[in-house]
What does this fold into?
Amino acid sequence: MKRVIGFIGVFFLTLTLFASNIDTLVVYSNAMQKDIKNVVITPSSYKKKGVPYSVVYLLHGAGGDHKAWLGKAPDIKAYADQYNVIVVCPDGHKTSWYFDSPVDANMQYETYVSKELVSEIDKSFNTKADKKHRAITGYSMGGHGALYLAFRHTDIWGVAASMSGGLDIRGFPLQWEIAKRLGVYGENPETWDQNTVINLVHLLNGKNLKFLFDCGIDDFFYDANVRLHKKLLEQRIPHDYIERPGAHTNTYWANSIKYHMLYFNDFFNSENK
It folds into this structure.
């Protein structure tokens, strides 16, 4: 089935597993002039009319795609039912880092996720289309992406989280094609400074976003997570921070997402959002 809404083409490929429903939603990005696939999981209770649903966006890490979360944490299907939410897993390219790249017009994933995709999800599904019912998290590159997008778009997301996130990219100038997105670090240090999560704290006022981040103590991103935590403490920005045994592994992320979903559920049901 194919539907056209405005200038955005959409079609669905539906597969039912367990109680929740898994769809592949293909959205045309005007910013990048291409189709992008996204996994959308709706709970078994889902109805096109009636009481709308909160939405959780899950971002994948470097090397992944829209199906990565299903392989790394299959229980997300059950969480959609448990918390009665819609779960959206975008394809963020293998190494987009969820930036609007200043050096590559074909890599505009900040615009895609925070504007084009969110808009299309709210048009195509029965959602509570406001920041109080919209969450975002991710692992590794996706952990960076979740906080990067949430910090920069506090009008879009009311709650966010990160697991094993690359929260200070400057320590990895030759890794994961970040230089292809922002330019070579040695030649563009200001661009890197302006696009690393740890330097975006000034966008927070302590009230415009609720967020959590966690990292395993054996993770190569652990130091950056600790430094962000200390910076937030110094500036008295409320946040939740967790560190526990673990490395940069699927096992860690499959465990971490359980707590993120609970955290989001508490926010969605809070009277003081």
